[in-house]
User: Fold undecaprenyl-diphosphate phosphatase from Marinibactrum halimedae.
Amino acid sequence: MRLLENIHHFDVITFGWCLRRKHREQIVNLSRYVSRTADGPLYFMIGAVLWACGYQDVLPAFLIAFAIERATYAVVKKYFKRNRPPEAIPGYKSVIKPSDQFSFPSGHTSAAFLMTVLLLSLFPGLFWVLIPWAMCVGVSRVMLGVHFPTDIVAGATLGTITGLWATQSIMLGF
Assistant:
């Protein structure tokens, strides 16, 4: 239990540091936009573009990867039931209303890293675009006040592991 207390203490300190940055209003506005890019509709559009460009053979593995990632995310979130910053920090209010009750792991971050890994398996040249985007999605969730930093790390880990599993499945012929 002491380990969890230490992690939470680290999260609260790091969270506070992030929220005290200069130009917070501009960062919050940018964070709203970046966070919206990971809401979900973009992933369907990417799937449609891949389909139209002849990548139909990888789409079943991509869909299975998303199903596994979403299911794992839901189970972990219900198991840990970690309060979001507004519930965990007295007097704090987040910038946006979160989509669900608990914070661990970050679903936006998990999906962004999953999509990043999947797309990098097809287009490795997009590394310098996709990795910063996925990282910015995670940071945006902290800056909007709906996640602690370790929620982001857990989401990035979940998305990456699921993506690596899926890309291995594609390479092995599923």
About this structure: Residues 149-171 form the longest helix (23 residues). The chain is about 70% helix and 0% strand. The mean pLDDT is 88.
